Inverse folding.
């Protein structure tokens, strides 16, 4: 198993991507500590993992609450003997921040995703790094999306937010590399099986004067594979990146766009 004897913290574990990654980590042998703002959603994922034989704990944590994040990291490190992997998959509601031309967007709605995503990723990554330094090992995974690089209309501040997270990930990798800690960003294109992307595609479809199904077909056509990524594909890559088999990889982005972006 890729992550046998590893202790992994997943923020936003009650969401589609966080839950999929949590299940993949547990399946690969990790002891998973799930955190999220909505406890019943986190506990539902924990129940699935436990029923499948995984070792899991759930906690209600707001990734924007610095004291709560630090206290939870302390508790996990003390109980498990350290943190080996940290992954942040927190998100925000898309209504009101996407599907609106920039010239019509309020400053508050433009700034909301930038402040939320960059701050949440910073707080959770910092908490993990502080507890990984002494062990001189660990992997921090961040999450963005294709508008971090793709010139896409009607994404509001999301593109700037994700580009900021990627820049932060590179800087963190530079600082933590000498301590044996890797930082890798996952950048999938839209994942249609998630409620968030169904909402987003609806917003963009309305802005473009088409149906959601037409917008999804357009997005699929923009990829080299002529399809969009799945939750399972993203989760499997996350497990590999978190494992020792990817030990030479840091300061980079795992391109999960299906070819809508090429490197």
């Amino acid at each position: 198993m890729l992550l046998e004897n590893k202790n992994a913290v997943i923020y936003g574990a009650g969401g589609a991507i966080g839950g999929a990654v949590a299940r993949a980590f547990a399946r690969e042998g990790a002891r998973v500590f799930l955190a999220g703002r909505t406890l019943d959603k986190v506990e539902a994922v924990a129940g699935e993992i436990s029923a499948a034989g995984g070792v899991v704990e759930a906690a209600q944590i707001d990734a924007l609450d610095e004291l709560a994040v630090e206290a939870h990291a302390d508790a996990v490190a003390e109980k498990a003997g350290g943190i080996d992997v940290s992954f942040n998959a927190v998100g925000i509601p898309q209504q009101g921040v996407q599907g609106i031309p920039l010239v019509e967007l309020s400053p508050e709605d433009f700034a909301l995703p930038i402040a939320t995503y960059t701050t949440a990723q910073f707080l959770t990554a910092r908490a993990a790094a502080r507890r990984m330094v002494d062990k001189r090992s660990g992997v921090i995974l961040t999450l963005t999306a294709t508008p971090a690089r793709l010139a896409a209309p009607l994404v509001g501040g999301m593109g700037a937010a994700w580009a900021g997270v990627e820049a932060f990930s590179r800087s963190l990798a530079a600082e933590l590399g000498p301590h044996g800690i890797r930082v890798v960003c996952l950048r999938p294109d839209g994942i249609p099986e998630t409620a968030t992307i169904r909402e987003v595609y609806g917003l963009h479809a309305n802005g473009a004067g088409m149906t959601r199904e037409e917008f999804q077909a357009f997005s699929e056509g923009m990829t080299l594979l002529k399809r969009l990524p799945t939750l399972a594909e993203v989760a499997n890559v996350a497990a590999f990146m978190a494992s020792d088999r990817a030990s030479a990889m840091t300061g980079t982005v795992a391109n999960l766009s299906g070819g809508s972006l090429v490197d």
Summary: Residues 7-188+231-247 form a domain with the Rossmann fold fold (CATH 3.40.50.720). The helical segments are 16-27, 39-51, 66-80, 107-132, 158-176, 195-208, 212-221, 231-242.
